[in-house]
């Protein structure tokens, strides 16, 4: 069987017709009509709610003192001896178990950083994290600022202490 140009054209037209017949056009009118009374109405399944991020850990108080009790509580003082430890106690709260990075910084009156430390605190409800500063030599007399950050956010106001 010899095929000429007309035969090729007819063959291509036939293939196109078969392919076109295989495609079904959607009838959007059917989608607009409600189902018949005999058909039960079904509600579309709602999309799942987006997951809310975990509640952040928030600092509820910052206390600076020189001794910690067994429960990590610290009695606040503002005047320290040159040989005292300086304990920064941060109470935190979270709705769910969460870790927090707690940064504490001591700055001497001339702007020099006298100490800077980080700790990871865990809060499931309420939690306490203590950061302890000690000095091999006596602390220089003067005033110090204590700044605390929880997950990069300031935790309370800057506190001022004095070494005498």
Word description of this protein:
It is a single chain. The chain is mainly beta. 14% of the residues lie in helices and 43% in strands. The chain is built from 2 helices and 7 strands. The protein has helices at 5-22, 28-32, and strands at 58-65, 79-80, 86-108, 113-133, 142-150, 153-154, 159-163. Strands 1, 2, 3, 4, 5, 6 and 7 form a 7-stranded mixed β-sheet that branches. The longest helix has 18 residues, at 5-22. The chain starts with a helix and ends with a strand.
Q: How is this structure best summarized?
A:
The protein has 164 residues and is mainly beta.
Q: In angstroms, what is the radius of gyration?
A: 36 Å
| Number of E-type strands | 7
Multimerization state: single chain
Task: State the major sheet.
Answer: 7 strands, mixed
* Poorly predicted tracts of residues: none
Judged by helices, strands and strand pairing, the structural class is mainly beta
**Secondary structure tally, helices:** 2
Ends distance: 113 Å
How large a portion of the residues is in β-strands, by DSSP E? Answer: 35-45%
Q: Give the mean pLDDT.
A: 79
Shape: elongated
Query: Share of helix among residues?
Result: 10-25%
In N-to-C order, the SSE pattern is HHEEEEEEE
